[in-house]
Amino acid sequence: MHTPSSPARQWRVPAALPVAKLVGAVALVLLGLLFADGDPVQVVLAVAAAVGLAGWALRDLLAPVRLAVDPDGLTVIHGYAGRRRLPWAAVESITVERRTRMGLAAETLEIDAGESLHLFGRYDLDAPPADVAEELRAARP
User: Can you give the pLDDT of all 141 residues of the chain as single tens digits?
Assistant: First the structure.
């Protein structure tokens, strides 16, 4: 039985990002309590937003590696914290989409695998998407 090679390169969420999200969740609850002035709706909304932010941080802690490449193909994040293996034959294209909105530029790495499209931003990869795309293209046989 063939076992996949160990990843030649991995890209992961920056270590400070889940910490910042968790601090933000705590800050939301504290601000909700501070400004509630006896209104339970404000507290509930602050707690709901904090739970969402904490869930997002939890994903970063459970599945920090968003993308990995080896000679056999790619491994991408799938769903909340799962992984999907994409052999090179399944990868149709690797592109970088650049957009400018309200004066802010953003790049997104797009990996087209036919029936699925996988998108990664700067904070998913802890690297510029254009640099990651170059490395992926170089690693492709």
Answer: 444 555 689 999 999 999 999 999 999 999 999 998 888 999 999 999 999 999 999 999 999 999 999 999 999 999 999 999 999 999 999 999 999 999 999 999 999 999 999 999 999 999 999 999 999 999 998
Q: How far apart are CA 50 and CA 27, in angstroms?
A: 8
3-state secondary structure 52-99: HHHHHHHHHHHCCEEEEEECCEEEEEECCCEEEEEEHHHCCEEEEEEE
Determine whether domain 65-139 maps to CATH 2.40.128. no
Give the helix/strand (H/E) hosting 101: strand 93-101
Give the length of the chain.
Answer: 141
The domain locations on the chain are 16-62, 65-139
